[in-house]
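Exercise 7. Given the encoded structure of a 402-residue chain, write a plausible sequence.
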């Protein structure tokens, strides 16, 4: 059912809406008309631009607008792509950016519209890096200005980064840095199942595991209170069912079941990030290590969660036993399994979806790589979370993931 909501139920998100079961071809022109935005930059997935009619149909619908287009953004939002988008915004006085793609696209566009308001025209990577507190791996909010350019995000994955006012980009040294401002969230998020349907199934399901990771690490956090735990216990089953319906629909050729699974998963992915966005519950080691596994070894966002969440649960089992019992119960109930450990239940689900569950499956096996990942994790934006292990503990998790 189509539904328009404020992205988050707090004053900082007034005027920042989202539409579930949206129609991008109708909702984008409507928003542009409302904003009186005539100069528009499309930042779009290469596959959508070349292998489907999604972008072509939108360009035809926007034929009366002054359209600029960037096709393709690298994995984990490289600085070069962010700079390219920001320069286009500055040079052509772009009034609205439309991102259609995965989390790398939305992150690149969120940072670009923030930096286009913050840095002078023609800025480079050095100026970007100068904004970052290197100990925390975070720029803002003091060093970053609120964007003045509108941003519409049409996600094609479930990583759910579009709901966050913070976004991450990867510098030339392969380190993921984070940029944020309280008003840095998109102006409008459009959850269109028909657009998401074009995403290859392995990418969709992997991004869904990223959302599962959001739920699980939030529940396992020492800062998770009763209200947040209740929210998670309602939302995680919805997400798991959506992913299973999508997988079953894909395998059985049932389009209605597949689209229903997409719509449920999109709602579930938003719910998965609420504990962090509303209650400020920090993510844990799976996310912190995953940020750097992605930037160092080029492993896709969701796949990092597939690989790292089970060993993280094993490593933290003694400290998070009660939370892991809840996770285990939810997985067993939704999936009809009888696993005895949360880590085993998560890994079994990953394998059921046909996704990688070991570092060896993504060609990350060298000790040198693991040490670099561990060292960079210590300076990740999540490193201030005292619940994260030291370097030796990070290496233990990585070793279990081999």
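Solution.
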């Amino acid at each position: 059912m189509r539904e328009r909501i404020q992205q988050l139920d707090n004053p900082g998100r007034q005027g920042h809406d989202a539409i579930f079961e949206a129609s991008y071809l109708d909702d984008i022109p409507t928003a542009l008309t409302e904003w009186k935005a005539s100069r528009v930059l499309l930042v779009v997935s290469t596959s959508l631009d070349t292998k489907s009619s999604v972008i072509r149909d939108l360009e035809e619908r926007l034929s009366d607008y002054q359209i600029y287009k960037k096709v393709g953004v690298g994995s984990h939002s490289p600085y070069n792509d962010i700079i390219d988008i920001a320069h286009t915004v500055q040079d052509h006085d772009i009034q609205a950016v439309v991102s259609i793609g995965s989390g790398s696209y939305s992150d690149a566009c969120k940072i670009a519209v923030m930096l286009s308001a913050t840095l002078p025209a023609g800025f480079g990577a050095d100026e970007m890096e100068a904004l970052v507190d290197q100990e925390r791996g975070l720029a803002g909010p003091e060093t970053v200005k609120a964007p003045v350019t509108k941003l519409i995000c049409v996600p094609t994955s479930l990583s759910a980064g579009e709901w966050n006012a913070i976004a991450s980009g990867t510098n030339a040294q392969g380190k993921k840095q984070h940029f944020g401002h309280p008003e840095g969230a998109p102006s409008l998020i459009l959850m269109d199942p028909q657009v998401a349907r074009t995403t290859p199934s392995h990418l969709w399901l992997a991004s869904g595991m990223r959302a599962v990771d959001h739920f699980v690490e939030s529940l396992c956090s020492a800062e998770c209170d009763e209200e947040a735990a209740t929210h998670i216990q309602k939302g995680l089953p919805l997400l798991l069912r959506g992913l299973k319906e999508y997988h079953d629909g894909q395998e059985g050729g049932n389009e209605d079941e597949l689209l229903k699974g997409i719509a449920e998963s999109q709602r579930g992915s938003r719910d998965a990030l609420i504990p962090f966005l509303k209650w400020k519950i920090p993510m844990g080691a799976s996310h912190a290590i995953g940020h750097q596994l992605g930037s160092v070894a080029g492993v896709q966002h969701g796949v990092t969660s597939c690989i790292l969440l089970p060993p993280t649960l094993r490593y933290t089992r003694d400290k998070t036993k009660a939370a892991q019992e809840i996770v285990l119960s939810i997985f067993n109930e939704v999936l009809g399994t009888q696993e005895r450990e949360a880590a085993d239940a998560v890994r079994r689900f990953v394998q059921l979806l046909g996704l990688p569950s070991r570092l060896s499956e993504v060609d990350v096996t060298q000790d040198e790589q693991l040490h670099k990942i561990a060292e960079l994790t210590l300076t990740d934006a999540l490193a201030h979370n005292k619940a994260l292990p030291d370097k030796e503990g990070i290496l233990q998790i990585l070793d279990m993931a081999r």
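Remark. The first strand starts at residue 3 and ends at 6. Students should compare their own answers with the one above.
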